[in-house]
Amino acid sequence: VYVGALQNIFSKSSKYSLFDPCKEMVYIPLDEDMKVKSKAAIDVVCNPLGKSGGALIQQFMILTFGSLANSTPYLGGILLVIVLSWIGAARSLDSQFSPLAKQELEKEKLLKEKVKEPVVKPSQENKEGLVGKEATTKENGFLGSSASENSTNGSALKEKLAPESKSSSDAPTT
Prior knowledge:
mainly alpha; ATP:ADP antiporter activity; membrane; elongated; 174 residues
């Protein structure tokens, strides 16, 4: 009884933690129309066929060999074949799914990069010709290499900021 209970616990827990999430992952790369059709086909046709097929095989083996104990080695062999084909199907899905998932990640990265790129408008310039981040660093009195390197003015910006940096460095620190 304990062995049967443990087997039932392990089979249900592996089904809900491994099989069901993998089954749902198959639908991810499909478009909405294909998701609905394939999910309906699997849930309505394939799942009941699988369960009734397993029961049919077990009944046939019991009738052929006389008892469940006599048919157990053969049922184990059938189970091994089914598990190996299941692993093969999972590997096949991985080889098909991974490239699609990588493409989706690439698209998402490109979209995020496009969104993060700042748009500089001429109206954002201040009276000294500084734009965006450079203007805030000048106003705050902080000088960074990014302000001078990213500037469109180049060395002219360095010359404008140089006198201020000398005066700020002469100030006593607390």
